[in-house]
Amino acid sequence: MDNQGVAADPQLQQFIAVESQKQRFQQLVHQMTEVCWEKCMDKPGPKLDSRTEVCFVNCVERFIDTSQFILNRLEQTQSRGTFSETMTD
């Protein structure tokens, strides 16, 4: 069996795309957890105080907003063709 036959298999391509998306999502969650933990957690305890909880919520929301902005910007860049075009906007 040649490699082109495997690469052309739509079910395999879909499976690889889904698994790649899962991996990217897991990496994003890990990165978000690390950033927000460092930013918000002073000293671990049995319960989160309200200040720490608010910090985590705000951190996660800003992380998601930033990630979405970057994704949208990359999609715009790809649809325009070159990165240099977007730098002059």
Protein model, in words:
With 89 residues, the chain is mainly alpha-helical. It is built from four helices and no strands. It is elongated and about 55 Å long. The termini are far apart. The mean pLDDT is 82.
Question: What would a concise description of this structure say?
Answer:
By secondary structure, the chain is an all-alpha fold. The protein has 4 helices and no strands.
Radius of gyration: 20 Å
Give me the count of strands. 0
Classification by helices and strands: mainly alpha
- Bulk shape: elongated
Q: What's the main sheet like?
A: none
Question: What's the number of helices?
Answer: 4
What string gives the helices and strands in order? HHHH
What is the helix content? over 70%
Mean pLDDT comes to 82
